[in-house]
Amino acid sequence: MATSDFEAILKAYERSGGNPHFLKSPKVASLVISGNQVLGANQVPGVQILPEALEHGVRVRVIVEPGVQLGVPAHLCFGVIPAEGLQEIQAEFEIGEGAHAEFIAHCTFPNAINVRHVMQGLVHVGRNAHMKYSETHYHGDEGGVQVIPKARITVEQGGHYISEFALTTGRVGKLDWDYQVDVAAGGVAELVTKAYGRDDDVISVKETIRLNGEGARGLAKARIAVRDRATSEVMGITEGNAPLTRGHVDCIEIVRDEAVAHATPVVRVTDSRAYVTHEAAIGTVDKKGLETLMARGLDEDEAVDVIIRGMLQ
Amino acid sequence: MEEKPILQVENLCLEREGRSILRNVNLTVTTGQVFGLLGRNGSGKSSLAYTLMGCAGYTPSGGRIVFDGQDITRLSITDRARRGLTLAWQDPARFEGMKVRDYLSLGAKDTSEARLHEVLEAVALTPSAYLERMVNDALSGGERKRIELAAVYAMSPRLAILDEPDSGIDVLSLDDMIRLIRRLADEGTTVLLITHRDEMLPVADVAALMCAGEIVRVGDPAAVRRHYAQRCRPCAVAEPVEEVDDGYERL
After folding, report:
1. Domain limits of chain A?
2. Model-level pTM?
3. Contacts of residue B97 in chain A, CB cutoff 8 Å?
4. Which domains does chain B have, with CATH numbers?
């Protein structure tokens, strides 16, 4: 392992909000990838992390054995330190029956001028297993990042899958997000996506939850803010395909300046005992909220930022 | 103590949607005073507050606002706030994702734990129960109102406009509000207290009565209160009251 590369990615990891301590601790399952180099992979009992370098990225299998209760979240770091580059991540997650696992991932491209990060994810959450995946991105201040995360998730009977994605600091660049979840009987899926676009950032978010088994539940939630000339397009799709399924699509977008926001909530019901709802709202920053903060001495830009960051919390 | 005016409102007029909302309003608030502005609902009190603060849609059509000797009529809200003027809204805004702790710290010079505790205790809220809560819909109207007043207190502004600070707060808590207003004044903040409840007036050093966008009386709070009770409460329409020759100073 090149120590300088490791230190550089740790610094970038910290800047994106991560705590480098976890990536160094032998007690914490972790994975550190810079470009196509695997700089660190730490396994703990019951958790296998199996990375393999590819020409432009890394293929990684993460296996949480059945019944394993991961006491401390696994920490994952993906980054590209140079200003230009392509990173392709092929990730497979297998959460065994009855296992509980939380993952905290940071993707960081602090110097990006022209970086493309492509992630293909395949996730299988076993019967009565729980998986939470929290992912925070930092793309630097230049907007030269194109990020394309695509994931197909299967949640078996009684399983839980929660995904939280945040890209609220620095520029977005171009984000093309597409997650699809199939949920079996009694299972739960929650997709929460938050992004803040500025300048000419382009945000595209598509979240699809198919509630295929009796009593399955799902929430597709997006909180997006765009200002300057940024654009956003959010599509939240929830299908109720089995009896007693409950689903909800919830999208709120704030738009300022010359930015443009689109929201398309889609609900499909193919079983008469399913119940799927949606709400979508696009608007500017609340005038009274803005003036209240200005009356505390913040200028208009600062006040807008405070309100947007609050919404994205 | 020198009676130096901190706020002078001169012939202030405001029109909105073709209607005259403020009609040649004249007021002088002296440094260190609690100035009570009493009036029925719809008399123009809140519009005056928004105009003084510089809110969007409340640009005066005539007259001027002088704060500490400087004409601030055309300044932004931020510029007014940075000069030491602030407003506690009658129906304060909610902020998703913002903690009470952070809200109180906005514009405050002292953001120490001790100071945050002090300002919450001043509005009879238990700091440990509120500092980590969000300033969102989970707060009741009364709680939100108290936090708004605590935030203004935390700023230590030179002039605080309190728009109906008692609305949404139960009668038993009026004493808390009165104590806070007195405390603000004692610590150097001039207070423009806007209210439609004449029970609040005893805290004021000077009072004015507003009706249909005009200031119709200025003077001793007890006398203004008496006039309000006798003449304004029974008045069914929000029209300017007739001048009554009862010895009060007519502006």
Report:
1. 3-285
2. 0.80
3. 309-313
4. 5-94+157-232 (3.40.50.300)
